[in-house]
Amino acid sequence: MEVLKIIGVLAGLILLAMFVTSMNAYTQKKYKYEIFNWYNLAAAGAGYAFILFGRSWYLESLNINGDILNGIILIVIGVITLGLVVRNNIRKTSLTFELLFSVVQLALYIPAAVVAFYGLLAAAAFFAQTKPVYSINGRG
Known about the structure:
By secondary structure, the chain is mainly alpha-helical. The chain has helices at 2-31, 38-63, 69-92, 95-128. Helix content is 81%, strand content 0%. 14% of the residues are buried.
């Protein structure tokens, strides 16, 4: 059963990659703009991060009767950032096309932003060249 799950996940990822590349080919041909690009991924990832951290800050402040405005401001910045991604896409494509695909695009960017975040952390750890520290005098 585990093998079927793995095959299903791989098949889903392949279909998703085919969908993204076909959408990019279509929008490139029709509008001279790729709808799934690194700028949109970075902006949407930042927007989702603002919303996530803002929600966390809001709930924490709510529990301790603190200032909830900081969390609300972060959430608003995140929503504005996501709105700017949609606005940029509408400006580069048509309104009807982007309204249909903005939900799909932003939904696909959620897991992509998480994977990109962990990839950046792994790259930072790799390029930092951290090495273990050894104690030579016997004290731990």
